[in-house]
């Protein structure tokens, strides 16, 4: 473990409970006191059409690309290539293109991000956790969305073994949490976001007893502004 890590951890313990979720704009991600942004939206495509396309693709479908945020259109087109329904394909392509552009120089400053479109079932990540990435955007187009809880309800601990690090020690049993709806944008800062080490947004998957179609984009905070898996 490095001195810089420990210093960041000390800073996190002082600021932790003040860092919150915003429901305003993705631009709030630039604020040091915000580690998650939830933007509510309504899908222009009927859920029945989305469900039909998801069922045709089948649980386990995944399309993944490394996108250039300055030219996001080719990546968005590749992600939806397997979709057949024109209305669904064209809307998702345009939506993903806009989301990828948000990661670019105009807002977050990343040159490349990893993006994927997949059909899920079950509960992929049932435990509360925070990611070791820069910023992640999760969009559930069909079914219940990701759940996120504010820092003031979270206990964290330092991992002294190995290379060190931060883990979620627990979340208050009765803590209120935000659940993203269909089509909503949920931006989550990870531990690798500048100034956010030890304060990554804590989240988990909902119960996906039925099929869910989701899109995810994530980035690292490396100096080259490249993507992280």
What does this structure look like?
This protein is an alpha+beta fold. Helix content is 21%, strand content 31%. It contains four helices and twelve strands, in the order αββαβααβββββββββ. Strands 1-2-10-5-12-4-3 form a seven-stranded mixed sheet, with helices on one face. A three-stranded antiparallel sheet has the order 9-6-11, with no helix packed on it. α3 packs across α4. The longest helix has 17 residues. 38% of the residues are buried.
Rg for CA atoms: 17 Å
Please give the order of strands in the largest beta sheet: 1-2-10-5-12-4-3
Count all strands and give the number: 12
What's the tally of helices? Answer: 4
- Low-confidence segments, given as residue ranges, are 220-229
Morphology: globular
Mean pLDDT: 89
Strand content: 25-35%
List the secondary-structure elements in sequence, H or E: HEEHEHHEEEEEEEEE
Ends: how far apart?
Answer: 22 Å
The chain-level structural class is alpha+beta
Largest sheet: 7 strands, mixed
Helix content bin: 10-25%
What does this entry show, briefly?
By secondary structure, the chain is an alpha+beta fold.
Topology:
Elements (H helix, E strand, L loop, with lengths): L2 H13 L4 E3 L11 E6 L7 H11 L4 E7 L4 H7 L6 H17 L9 E11 L12 E8 L4 E3 L4 E5 L7 E6 L6 E2 L5 E5 L12 E3 L3 E12 L10
Parallel strand pairs: 1-2
Antiparallel strand pairs: 2-10, 3-4, 4-12, 5-10, 5-12, 6-9, 6-11, 7-8
Helix pairs in contact: 3-4
Descriptive key words:
single chain; 229 residues; 31% strand
């Amino acid at each position: 473990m490095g001195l810089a890590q420990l210093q960041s951890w000390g800073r996190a313990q002082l600021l932790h409970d003040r860092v919150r979720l915003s429901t305003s704009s993705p631009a709030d991600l630039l604020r040091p006191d915000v580690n998650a942004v939830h933007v509510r939206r309504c899908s222009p495509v009927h859920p029945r059409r989305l469900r039909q396309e998801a069922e045709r693709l089948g649980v386990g479908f995944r399309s993944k690309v490394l996108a250039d945020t300055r030219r996001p259109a080719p990546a968005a087109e590749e992600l939806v290539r397997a979709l057949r329904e024109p209305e669904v394909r064209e809307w998702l392509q345009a939506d993903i293109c806009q989301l990828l552009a948000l990661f670019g120089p105009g807002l977050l400053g990343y040159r490349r991000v990893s993006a994927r479109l997949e059909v899920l079932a079950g509960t992929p990540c049932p435990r509360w956790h925070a990611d070791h990435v820069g910023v992640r955007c999760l969009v559930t187009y069909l079914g219940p969305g990701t759940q996120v809880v504010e820092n003031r309800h979270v206990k964290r601990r330092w991992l002294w073994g190995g290379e060190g690090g931060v883990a979620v020690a627990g979340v208050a049993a009765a803590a209120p949490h935000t659940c993203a709806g269909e089509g909503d944008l949920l931006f989550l800062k990870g531990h690798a976001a500048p100034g956010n080490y030890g304060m990554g947004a804590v989240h988990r998957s909902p119960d996906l007893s039925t099929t869910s179609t989701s899109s995810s984009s994530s980035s690292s905070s490396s100096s080259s502004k490249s993507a992280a898996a």
